């Protein structure tokens, strides 16, 4: 499925929302991409995973790690389709059991690709990368479906991480406008917000 068709499919299932949404960065955003809905649409989830895989298939990595929680189904779909082992970062370390922060089988020195749904400031990627690196794993790349173009790519580059995004917010808005899914006023308002609110780290 081409990127344009995927964006339209995501809009159709309600993953693209317009309104006022508080982001993890604290900013109030006029647009929100909610990929949690894809778990109820297997074909869309499979397409998301495959189109993200196409962005990174020529990179060298031993493991996948989906950022909890939205990216976990995406990373799982990629792992199952391409036979790449997966590890998982806990959001909280339990005070019982193994008390691990990284679950799965891995060896220090292996390279791990981080899988995330989207990037704004890059904070969630940093949190996952930090946990992986503390366990001796190497991180150099992260793949996302959407780059919100609010500073994440630049913030990641400062730590020598490369971001691989399927599409940007500008591209998403252009496609929705082209197919009359949004009006010019909405397009311009969201684009202005994106351009005015860069998140530095």
UniProtKB/TrEMBL annotation:
<dbReference type="InterPro" id="IPR004467">
    <property type="entry name" value="Or_phspho_trans_dom"/>
</dbReference>
<comment type="similarity">
    <text>Belongs to the purine/pyrimidine phosphoribosyltransferase family. PyrE subfamily.</text>
</comment>
<feature type="binding site">
    <location>
        <position position="96"/>
    </location>
    <ligand>
        <name>5-phospho-alpha-D-ribose 1-diphosphate</name>
    </ligand>
</feature>
<feature type="binding site">
    <location>
        <position position="90"/>
    </location>
    <ligand>
        <name>5-phospho-alpha-D-ribose 1-diphosphate</name>
    </ligand>
</feature>
<keyword id="KW-0460">Magnesium</keyword>
<comment type="pathway">
    <text>Pyrimidine metabolism; UMP biosynthesis via de novo pathway; UMP from orotate: step 2/2.</text>
</comment>
<keyword id="KW-0210">Decarboxylase</keyword>
<comment type="function">
    <text>Catalyzes the transfer of a ribosyl phosphate group from 5-phosphoribose 1-diphosphate to orotate, leading to the formation of orotidine monophosphate (OMP).</text>
</comment>
<keyword id="KW-0511">Multifunctional enzyme</keyword>
<comment type="subunit">
    <text>Homodimer.</text>
</comment>
<keyword id="KW-0665">Pyrimidine biosynthesis</keyword>
<feature type="binding site">
    <location>
        <position position="94"/>
    </location>
    <ligand>
        <name>5-phospho-alpha-D-ribose 1-diphosphate</name>
    </ligand>
</feature>
<protein>
    <recommendedName>
        <fullName>Orotate phosphoribosyltransferase</fullName>
        <ecNumber>2.4.2.10</ecNumber>
    </recommendedName>
</protein>
<feature type="domain" description="Phosphoribosyltransferase">
    <location>
        <begin position="42"/>
        <end position="154"/>
    </location>
</feature>
<feature type="binding site" description="in other chain">
    <location>
        <begin position="116"/>
        <end position="124"/>
    </location>
    <ligand>
        <name>5-phospho-alpha-D-ribose 1-diphosphate</name>
    </ligand>
</feature>
<keyword id="KW-0808">Transferase</keyword>
<dbReference type="InterPro" id="IPR029057">
    <property type="entry name" value="PRTase-like"/>
</dbReference>
<dbReference type="GO" id="GO:0044205">
    <property type="term" value="P:'de novo' UMP biosynthetic process"/>
</dbReference>
<dbReference type="GO" id="GO:0000287">
    <property type="term" value="F:magnesium ion binding"/>
</dbReference>
<dbReference type="Pfam" id="PF00156">
    <property type="entry name" value="Pribosyltran"/>
</dbReference>
<feature type="binding site">
    <location>
        <position position="148"/>
    </location>
    <ligand>
        <name>orotate</name>
    </ligand>
</feature>
<dbReference type="GO" id="GO:0004590">
    <property type="term" value="F:orotidine-5'-phosphate decarboxylase activity"/>
</dbReference>
<dbReference type="InterPro" id="IPR023031">
    <property type="entry name" value="OPRT"/>
</dbReference>
<feature type="binding site" description="in other chain">
    <location>
        <position position="91"/>
    </location>
    <ligand>
        <name>5-phospho-alpha-D-ribose 1-diphosphate</name>
    </ligand>
</feature>
<dbReference type="GO" id="GO:0019856">
    <property type="term" value="P:pyrimidine nucleobase biosynthetic process"/>
</dbReference>
<feature type="binding site">
    <location>
        <position position="120"/>
    </location>
    <ligand>
        <name>orotate</name>
    </ligand>
</feature>
<dbReference type="GO" id="GO:0004588">
    <property type="term" value="F:orotate phosphoribosyltransferase activity"/>
</dbReference>
<comment type="pathway">
    <text>Pyrimidine metabolism; UMP biosynthesis via de novo pathway; UMP from orotate: step 1/2.</text>
</comment>
<dbReference type="InterPro" id="IPR000836">
    <property type="entry name" value="PRTase_dom"/>
</dbReference>
<keyword id="KW-0328">Glycosyltransferase</keyword>
<keyword id="KW-0456">Lyase</keyword>
């Amino acid at each position: 499925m081409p990127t344009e068709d995927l964006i339209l499919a995501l809009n159709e299932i309600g993953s693209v929302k317009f309104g006022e949404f508080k982001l993890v960065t604290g900013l109030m955003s006029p647009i929100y991409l909610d990929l949690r809905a894809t778990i109820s649409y297997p074909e869309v989830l499979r397409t998301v995973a495959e189109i993200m895989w196409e962005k990174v298939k020529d990179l060298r990595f031993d493991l996948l790690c989906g950022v909890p929680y939205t990216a976990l189904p995406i990373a799982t779909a990629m792992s199952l389709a391409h036979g790449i082992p997966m590890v998982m970062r806990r959001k909280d370390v339990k005070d019982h059991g193994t008390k691990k922060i990284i679950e799965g089988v891995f060896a220090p020195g292996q390279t791990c690709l981080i899988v995330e749904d989207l990037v704004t400031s890059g904070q969630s990627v940093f949190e996952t990368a930090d946990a992986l690196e503390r366990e001796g794993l190497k991180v150099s790349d992260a793949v996302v479906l959407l780059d919100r173009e609010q500073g994440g790519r630049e913030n990641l580059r400062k730590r020598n991480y490369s971001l691989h995004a399927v599409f940007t917010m500008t591209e998403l808005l252009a496609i929705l406008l082209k197919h009359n899914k949004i009006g010019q006023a909405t397009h311009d308002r969201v684009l202005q917000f994106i351009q005015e609110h860069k998140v530095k780290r």
